[in-house]
Amino acid sequence: MSNNHGLFYANGSHPQLLDFSACRLDLAMASEPHLDRVERSHEPARANYNRISRFYDLIAGWSEKKSREAGLARLAAKEGEQVLEIGCGTGLALTALARAVGATGRVCGLDLAAAMVSLARARLDRAGLAERVELRTGDALTLPYPARSFDAVFMSFVLELFDTPEIPAVLAECRRVLRPGGRIGVVSISASGPRTLVRRLYEWSHQRFPRVVDCRPIPVRTLLESAEFSPTTTDAISMWGLGIEIVVAKPPG
Ligand SMILES: C[S@@+](CC[C@H](N)C(=O)[O-])C[C@H]1O[C@@H](n2cnc3c(N)ncnc32)[C@H](O)[C@@H]1O
After folding, report:
1. Domains and CATH numbers, the chain
2. What is the pLDDT of residue 218?
3. The model's pTM
4. Which of 71, 102, 159, 197 has CA atoms 20 to 30 A from the CA of 206?
């Protein structure tokens, strides 16, 4: 796959090539891509996710399934690896990661909301995978892990929640905890594709009801490149007409 292309799953199953060069040119021309600021601080975010935790799978879990699974497939966690998921929510990706790394690997899950972490723990218990996963409540801005401790970091529908100046700080933390030769996989609502009607409606909802529709589209690949990551794959898929970008990238060095 060339650097200027991504796989586009227009109808959910058959990948087609989609040219991203024009969008990236636009973004590259702006020294700082425009991104709406996020007014909400982390405390209200924590309270919100604690409050909606019991309904999260119903509200978003199923609709994001295809994107999350495509991201996990691209990350391709392997037997014996150490993997961190940031913003693990109710643990929907943790079970897949725990199975992929096997008994010799280790998965860490971190989330701001204690109620989300409790649900993730219960899910892992039910799946008989709890021993392979270490869960913590914490903030991605200050990851509670030593430098160079993971082969891979995964985030799905999380990076777009952070305020614009926080995104490079979160990515710097990811760089710090990744081993040389490791990789990051990010699944996120994308600002890199066309502003379709669905995207404009979504952006309007985010501006109008930022506490409920708290994610906003971000230029995932551009943000990773600005944070010194080198993308190895960039995929674009559609979630009900909303562009989702899936980028796997390597840290410098
Ligand atoms: C939209 S949900 C996505 C959950 C999960 N990644 C998934 O795909 O199902 C966002 C998650 O990120 C967590 N989160 C929000 N801000 C965070 C922060 N500063 N640090 C760690 N987790 C955070 C929320 O509590 C929530 O569980």
Report:
1. 5-250 (3.40.50.150)
2. 95
3. 0.87
4. 71
